Structure formats: structure tokens, C-alpha cells
Amino acid sequence: QVQLVESGGGLVQPGGSLRLSCVASEPTFTRVAAGWFRQVPGKPREFIAAINWNGQRTYYADSMKGRFTISRDNAKNTVYLQMNNLNPEDTAAYHCAIHRDSAWNPVRLVDNKAYHSWGQGTQVTVSS
Fold this sequence. Notes:
Number of helices: 1
Structural class: mainly beta
Helix content: under 10%
Number of strands: 11
Oligomer: single chain
Order of helices and strands: EEEEEEEEEHEE
Largest sheet: 7 strands, mixed
Radius of gyration: 13 Å
């Protein structure tokens, strides 16, 4: 089974930027869609963005559009999440995962139950 490892989190000041990486252990990752979610303790996992297998299709939660950008480099088995203009409400553990479906269906893309092989997460803390 593919294993995903996130990195790139840390402490950043409000207005700052971070780029998160999600590296997969198997090259089969290059043939599947992937997504980023975030979670605050005591709250459900929140969808951020998804990207199809070749990077030509992306989908964002409305609240994430404009500040967050998902991309991938299949030569590196990696999906990225560029986050700009961060604010304290963005503080969370950020996770990547593999989408189960071959179809590109926004209803399914935002559903965390439609993903598997979750990474352990990387913590992002936005604070002055």
C-alpha cells in the first residue's frame, strides 16, 4: 500500500506563506488523484483542494480559493500545497490522501471518506 509523508509545516507569522509537500512511497501515486485536508482537534477534517493524476484538473473548497494552490510533480511522486497570506484560523494539522475514485466528481472530492492512505500530517501554526 502506498504510504504518504507530509512535510513543510511549521510556525509562521500572519500574512506569511508555506509550501507543504506530500511524498508517496510508490510510483502508482502518479496515476491517481490526491487531496489535501486539514484538521483542528475536536473538529471534522476539512477539505482544502484536490488534483487529478496529471495535474491538469484541480478543485478547491470555496473558502480556500485564491490563497491556496495545489500542484504535483509526478517525476518526484509529490503533491504540493502552496499557502499564502496565512492567518491564525489556518492553524491545523494538514494531511494528504489518495482519492479512491477514477471519476472526477466534486461531490466525492470534498468527502474525506472518499480517500485512503492518509499521511500522518504536518502541523501548521500561524501566530505572531
